Amino acid sequence: MLGAIGRAFKTPDLRNKLLFTLGVIVLYRLGSYIPAPGIDYAQVQQCVANPQLNQGAFGLVNLFSGGALLQLSIFALGIMPYITASIITQLLRVVIPRFEALHKEGASGQAKLTQYTRYMTIGLGILNATTLVSTVRTGALFGNVEGCQDLIVNDTWWGVLIIVITLTAGTGLIMWLGEQITERGVGNGMSLLIFTAVAAGFPAAFGAILTSQGIDIFLIVVAVGLAIVALVVFVEQSQRRIPVQYAKRMVGRRMFGGTSTYIPIKVNQAGVIPVIFASSVLYLPSLIAQFGDPEAQWVQWITEYLTTGDHPVYMLVYFLLTIFFTYFYVAITFNPEEVADNMKKYGGFIPGIRAGRPTEQYLSYVLTRITFPGSLYLAFVAMIPLIALVLIDANQNFPFGGTSLLIIVGVGLETVKQIDSQMQQRHYEGLLR
Predict the structure, then answer these.
(1) DSSP alpha helices (H): ranges in 334-356?
(2) In CATH, what number is assigned to the domain containing residue 370?
(3) Do 97 and 181 fall into the same domain?
C-alpha cells in the first residue's frame, strides 16, 4: 500500500493534484475551529464539553460540519446548505419543465443548473444562519443547558447581522473550495469535504467508547465495524448489468454501431440520500417540540417517542422512512422512460425485449425488484447506531453505521477509483497491483 502511494506521488501531475486536495482539506478543517465574530469562544467550549449535552435535532448538521456547528465557527453551517440546494434542484426537475429541459441540454444546461444551485445555496445559508443565531440566543442549540444561553457577546441587531453574514460567507467559501478540488484536485470536491467532516469525528467517537466501555468493548466494536465496512463495500460494488446491443447503421460511407454494452443498476442506487432524508424528517418533530409548551401533551408524546433513538417507535419510523425515501429518490433520479427513449433513438435494444414501451416496462420491473433489497440494506445500515445506543450505550455518533459509514465508504471508493484510473493512464498499472 505504501508503495502504491509512493508511485502516485512520483507522478508530477498527480502529485500536484493530491497536494492541492490535501491543502484545501487542511484549510477546511482549520476554518472549523475559527470562531465567528461576536461569539464567547471560552463559554462555547465549556458548553461543548458539558456531559449533559444532547445534540438532538442538530446532530446531523453537526456531523456534516465536522463538529463546527457546536463550535460556532465561521464554517458552522458546513456543506449542508449546498447539499440541500442540490437535492432541491434535482427534485424541481420533476415539477418545473424548464429545469428538465436544462438537464437535457448537456454541458450548457448543467452549467445553468449549477448556477441556480449556487444562488439557492447562498439563500439557504442566510436562512440557516439566521435560524442558528436564533437558537443560540434562546439556548436551544445546547439543549437549554444551564450557562449556555448568553453566548453572543454583542447581542445587538448589527452584531447579529455580522454573525449571519460571516456564516453565510463561510458557506460560500466552502462551496468554492469544493469546486476547486473538483477542477484542480482529485475526486469530487463536495464529497471529499463531507468525507473530511465525517472522518474528523471518528477519533473522538472511538475515544469515547474506549473511555466509557473499556478495552474489551472497544476491540469488539472495531472488529464488528471492520466486518460492517466489508459488507458495505460488497453491496456498494454490487450491480445488476442489463445487456444492451446497438444495431449497425450507415452514416454516409461509414458503419456505426454493432457494439454490446450494459446498463449498470446498482443495488444501492440511491446512495446516502434516503438516510439523510429520513434523519431530517425525524429531526423536525423534536425541533418543533423545543419551541412548544413542555407541559403540552403533544410535546410530551414527541419527547417520549420521537426524540431518543433507543425507543422502538423511533426505530420503526426511522426504518420505514428509509425504505420509503429509497424508492422515492430512485424514482426521481432514474427515469426508465428517458433511458428507453435514448436507447431507441440510437438504435439500442435489450436482447429479447422490444424497443420503446416494452423496454421501459422491463427497466421499471428490474428497478423495482433491485430497489427492495437496496432499501432493506440502507435501513439496516441506518439502524446500526441506534442498536449500538441500546447495546453498549454509545452516543448518536457511533462511528460504524448510518450516514457516516455510507459516506466514508462511498466517497473513499470513488476517490480511489479516480486515482487508480489516472495512474493507469500514465503507468499502465493502477493504484494497487
Answers:
(1) 336-345
(2) 1.10.3370.10
(3) yes
Q: Does the predicted model carry a pTM greater than 0.90?
A: no
Residue 52's CB is within 10 A of a number of other CB atoms, namely 10
Provide the CB-side half-sphere exposure for 52 (13 A, CA).
Answer: 10
Instruction: Say how far apart CA 349 and CA 356 lie, in whole Å.
Output: 9
Is the same domain home to 180 and 122? yes
Task: Identify whether the C-beta of residue 195 lies closer than 8 Å to the C-beta of residue 411.
Answer: yes
Residue 331: domain span: 208-400
pLDDT of residue 216 exceeding 50, the answer is yes
pLDDT in tens, 260-297: 888 888 888 888 888 878 877 777 777 677 666 777 77
CB atoms within 10 A of CB 147: 12
Q: How far apart are CA 90 and CA 328, in angstroms?
A: 12
Report the distance separating Cα 364 and Cα 337, nearest Å.
Answer: 9
Residues in the chain: 433
Kindly state whether residues 147 and 214 are assigned to the same domain: no
Unique residue bearing C-alpha cell 473511555: 211
Whether residue 216 is found in the same domain as residue 81: no
Please tell me whether residues 170 and 269 are part of one structural domain: no
Question: In this predicted model, what pLDDT tens digit does every residue of 176-198 receive, in sequence order?
Answer: 998 899 888 888 888 888 888 88
In a domain, 421, yes or no: no
Q: What is the DSSP string of 131-188?
A: HHHHHHHHTGGGTT-TT-S--BSS-SHHHHHHHHHHHHHHHHHHHHHHHHHHHHSSS-
Phi, psi values for residue 289, rounded to 5°:
-65, -25
Query: Residue 132 domain-assigned?
Result: yes
Question: What total of structural domains would you count in the chain?
Answer: 2
In the block, residue with C-alpha cell 456498494 = 236
